[in-house]
Design brief:
The complex is a heterodimer of chains A (148) and B (225).
Chain A (H helix, E strand, L loop, with lengths): L1 E5 L3 H12 L3 E6 L5 H5 L12 E4 L5 H6 L7 E4 L4 H13 L5 E5 L3 H9 L3 E3 L1 H14 L10
Parallel strand pairs in A: 1-2, 1-4, 2-3, 4-5, 5-6
Chain B lengths: L1 E5 L3 H12 L3 E6 L2 H11 L3 E3 L5 H6 L7 E4 L4 H13 L5 E6 L5 H6 L5 E3 H12 L5 E7 L4 E7 L20 E8 L2 E3 L12 E6 L4 H8 L9
Parallel strand pairs in B: 1-2, 1-4, 2-3, 4-5, 5-6
Antiparallel strand pairs in B: 7-8, 8-11, 9-10, 9-11
Classes of the chains: A alpha/beta (148), B alpha/beta (225).
């Protein structure tokens, strides 16, 4: 599977590395050339030597997306720092380039729900955090593994 | 009419002033605290502090009853999303979006955000009007309907000079709708003879500009400054 990840922050870079390790072809697009270091970290060799691809560019530039290989992407992950950027580029991947699997990070739970209903696969870390806080608050040390 | 305006920059503020002076109800939503505070005194209850891409902020502003949503922030993604949500979630009938970078115009179109207004494009259009290339001026482009109206000045060496309208075999999808001669315009008849210096108005399918130019200004040069 060819996976294109836009936004190589903590989440994007980690997902990129694990996807590569799982044997997928992985291309990463980020506007900050320094984010490349996050991909190299802990690899023992460079991201490219490990087989990864990296493109510097902003996600709203169609040229950058094409250069990063969106036309042959089987999966697209939008994990930049901005919800609005993620939602727009995810729809571009889906509607203009016909990428089959589009996954988008949306911090705002309300819009994660609504865009989810509109056919985007949304992941809202905020929702997970809320959920975990609520469970942690409700149960006595509910997050800890149960004592044997 | 009730209008919600996202973004209290120069464009948003001036739109709000105009609409308010015409007795429309307006709410401006501004996400920068500093900018909000700077405008609160003037706009009072007609400005709210918040991020207009968030659903609850739009709902607080009363988007369910808005007749018009105008997104004029400095951020194209924000403008796209405000309008998309207004149109598709809240079924607002009329939206207008500002395009900051003309390169993003395609994205607005792709996601159905129309009309999308780009200041750069408008100024380019004006430059084109002032400095017509090949004497051709775009007067109106109806993108949805796929029609354009253009204006051309007939060059002295054009093949159509001295020809009757009826005898000019224009490409399919184009039609002369008006001729301006010596300051006044008229609708040509079949036997109207085209003269050098006439300004002809044509309606045509997009993409026919070059073919049409050959009929009226074959050796057209960019106008001299």
């Amino acid at each position: 599977m060819f996976v294109l990840i836009v936004g190589a922050g903590r989440v994007g870079a980690a997902v990129a590395k694990s996807a590569l390790a799982a044997g997928h072809e992985v291309s990463v697009l980020d506007e900050d050339p320094l984010s490349h270091e996050r991909l190299d970290a802990g690899q023992g060799r460079s991201w490219e030597d490990s087989g990864g691809q990296f493109t510097v560019g902003t996600a709203l530039e169609t040229d950058a997306l094409v250069q990063a290989g969106i036309e042959r992407a089987d999966a697209f992950i939008a994990s930049t720092a901005g919800d609005n950027t993620n939602l727009v580029i995810a729809q571009i991947a889906q509607k203009r380039f016909g990428v089959e699997k589009v996954i988008v990070r949306v911090m705002d739970p309300a819009r994660a729900d609504w865009y989810g209903e509109q056919g985007l696969q949304t992941i809202s870390p905020t929702k997970h955090a809320i959920d975990m806080f609520e469970r942690a608050l409700a149960g006595p040390r509910a997050m800890e593994p149960e004592a044997a | 009419m009730y209008a919600i305006i996202a973004g209290a920059g120069k464009v948003g503020r001036n739109l709000a002033r105009e609409l308010i002076s015409k007795d429309h109800e307006v709410t401006v939503i501004e996400s920068s605290r500093t900018c909000y505070l700077a405008n609160e005194e003037e706009f009072e209850h007609a400005i709210q502090y918040g991020d207009a891409t968030e659903l609850w902020v739009l709902e607080r502003a009363g988007i369910q009853r808005a007749d018009l949503v105008i997104a004029v922030t400095g951020d194209d993604e924000d403008n796209i999303l405000v309008c998309q949500v207004a149109k598709e979630k809240y079924l607002c009938e009329r939206i207008i979006a500002r395009v900051n970078s003309p390169r993003n115009h395609d994205h607005f179109r792709l996601l159905g955000i129309q009309p999308a207004v780009s200041a750069t494009d408008l100024i380019l259009r004006l430059i084109e009007h002032e400095v017509p290339r090949y004497g051709l001026v775009h007067l109106l482009a109806l993108e949805e309907e796929r029609l354009e109206i253009i204006e051309l000045e007939v060059a002295p060496d054009a093949p159509t000079v001295g020809e009757k309208v009826n005898d000019i075999n224009l490409p399919e999808g184009s039609l002369i709708i008006s001729v301006l001669r010596e300051g006044s315009g008229f609708v040509p008849k079949a036997d109207t003879v085209i003269e050098a210096g006439d300004e002809v108005l044509l309606v045509l399918d997009p993409g026919l500009e070059d073919a049409i130019t050959a009929y009226f200004a074959p050796n057209g040069q960019p106008a001299a400054f």
